[in-house]
Every structure is written in structure tokens, then in C-alpha cells.
């Protein structure tokens, strides 16, 4: 009897200690320095060739074409390379709680989503709390997009996790925006499988004025190969939620599939090709060039395996974990390249990926490694904006986290 009581007290002490450690953040502190600690080494990028599309000979030929001297009196605009360019860095917001998306309004005010369910205008405070948001694990209030017809319809689109009959699900809704408040909710699409992990969550309007939605596999890998599931895919819809007639699958919102947990969407400014970032199982994160109807292989293959049946990644990270999320292209007419800036969560960085004006991958460089976990990168008016996510339970918060930075390349 005495032994049973002793065992009971020991068990109770263990439970109380566990709760105490969790509530005080000690568990997160431990995880951030072990399981979720960055595993990047600067030498990796110089040693490995991450390109899986095309080949180096093609890239060399393209370079030779660019380097050929002009014929006769033809004028050639002088350009410079992004390599070696310095940046001006400014903190524009502090003490946010897991900011997930940043958008700029036409009047230059900045809207931000916070994962617990808040939409706020920087320097003005909260304008809305989405009460149906289920903030659990990686789920919550995630992506946000401005209607391509905002001047006429004033719509703001939100992607968020909710619960129904005990199940995690995701939906996209739109709200009319009136100066400093959101109107009634209008559901665009719902019933997207969700979980505590792998909810995807990025939404953006493309050059074709269609709404693109990145969804995760909801911790059920097989769903990513089932186009009826809406999980592990890129979806494409009209702004009102109806299905475009030119989608690759009849009467389906699915545009591309077989992607484990896509969290970034961006279009090359010259070619208008769609790129997406995706989380791999153990490392093996990807940057993909998305094509209509493309199958990117998960879970049948990972990006380090060659297969004619599936689309290959532009870049496959085999040597470290980037955990890429939001990303955006930076364009400047005086630059030789077009650069895709990709946020890295576990990578604790922004990865700059340089492409030619024709869309060929050239090189990459790790930047801004002193700010911790980076959730998103957004381009606006010659600057990029980045949001940290050190308060998400997997980072090491500084006193002012989470923060938003405005970063401006200084082009000679």
C-alpha cells in the first residue's frame, strides 16, 4: 500500500512538473534549442548543386548570350548584379503575436494577420478578431489577400483553421473592408482538411486575377494524391469561389497536387510563372515551379528522387532544413537578375534565389540570419517586408518579438 502511495505521489509530481515547465515556456525553450534548432552551415550552399531543373550547360550558354557585345550602335542598358548589394534594415513593428501575413492597402497602411485570430493595422491596433478561428498547433488565422478589384469591392480574403464536429478544417472567407473594420463573412471555400500540423495557408491572387490557395496534407500524406480531398495542393478559384472552366481537372478547384505542406506562392514578374515553397519530411524542402495539372509526387517520392512520373523541384534542400514559408519576387530594372526572397522558419533566414529574366535558376544566398524564425516575405515599392515567428513555440523570442522589418536593397 505504501509503495502504491509513493508511486502515486511520484506520478503526480511528474505531471505537475510537466505542466509547470509547459506553462513557463521551458518545454518550448528546450525544443527551440534541440529539435527545431537551425541545422544550416554556410559551406553547404557552396558545396552542393541544388538545381534539379535543366542543367549547368544551359545556364552557361544563357550567360554567354548575355555577355555577347552589342552589334553596331545598338544601345544596351547598364545593369548590375544583386550579388554583394547591401541592405537598409528598419524595424516597423514590435511585440506582435505570431504574424502570418502582411499586405499593403492602397492608402499605404499595412494589414497583418496574427495566428491567434486577429487582423490588425500597424500603428492603429486590432480591427477584427475572427472568433471561429481554432488556434491549435500550426493552425489558426493564416493567409490574407487583397481583392484584385479592391478599389471597387473592398474585399479582404482570409484563410483560417476552424473546428467542426471535433475535426480540424480550413476555409477561405472574404470580408468587406471599411476604413478600420471588417464586414460580414462570406465563405469562398471550406472543408479543406486540417490538423494541428500541415495546414498550408498561403493565399494570393495571380496575374490572371484568380485566387490561388496553398493547402497542406493535414498530416495524412495519402490525401495529397487524392484530388477530391483538397489537401496537399494548390487550388485555383474565381474571386467568388466558383471554379474556372480552364482548370486542369473538370469541375475541380485543384490546380496542382502532391505537395506536402506548401506555404509560399509567388509569380516571376517577367514570365508570370508560379512558384511555391514546400516543407519536406526530414529536410528535403522544395521550391517548385507550379504548372497546371502538375503532380509533385508527395508521398510517392521526395524531391531527392528522380521520377518521370512527377514534376521535379527547382531546388531541393537535402543538406539542411530551410522550412520555407512566405516568399516574393523582387524586381528592379537596373538589376541583371530577378530575385525570389524566401522566408525560412527552422532555417532562421531569408534565402535569396536569383533567376534570369527568362526564369532560369542561377544561384542562392542565405541572408538575415540574426532575426530567428522568418514566416513571410512580401515585396512592396522597392522594399521587402519580413515577419518573425519566434513566439510560435519553436523559436527563441527576443524581448521585442515578434517583429516586422522593412528591408531595402541599396542598388548602385
Describe what you observe in this structure.
The chain has 412 residues and is mainly beta. The chain has a single domain (44-64, 80-410), classed as Neuraminidase, CATH 2.120.10. Helices cover 12% and strands 37% of the residues. The chain has helices at residues 2-23, 26-32, 42-47, 56-67, 150-153; strands at 86-93, 99-104, 110-114, 118-121, 125-129, 141-146, 155-164, 167-177, 182-193, 203-205, 211-215, 233-237, 254-257, 262-267, 274-278, 285-290, 315-317, 324-330, 338-344, 349-355, 361-367, 374-380, 383-388, 404-410. A hairpin with a 2-residue loop joins strand 7 (155-164) and strand 8. The chain is globular. The chain starts with a helix and ends with a strand.
Taken from the alpha-carbon principal axes, the silhouette is globular
Low-confidence stretches: 55-70
**Strand tally:** 24
CATH topology: Neuraminidase
Q: List the secondary-structure elements in sequence, H or E.
A: HHHHEEEEEEHEEEEEEEEEEEEEEEEEE
Task: Please tally the helical runs, counting DSSP H or I stretches of 4 or more residues.
Answer: 5
CATH architecture: 6 Propeller
Cα-based radius of gyration, to the nearest Å: 22 Å
Q: Please give the largest β-sheet.
A: 4 strands, antiparallel
The proportion of residues in beta strands is 35-45%
Instruction: Give the CA-CA distance, first to last residue.
Output: 80 Å
Mean pLDDT: 89
Strand order of the largest sheet: 1-24-23-22
What's the CATH class label? Mainly Beta
Helical content band: 10-25%
Category by helix and strand content = mainly beta
> How many domains make up the 3D coordinates?
1
At the fourth level of CATH, the homologous superfamily is: TolB, C-terminal domain
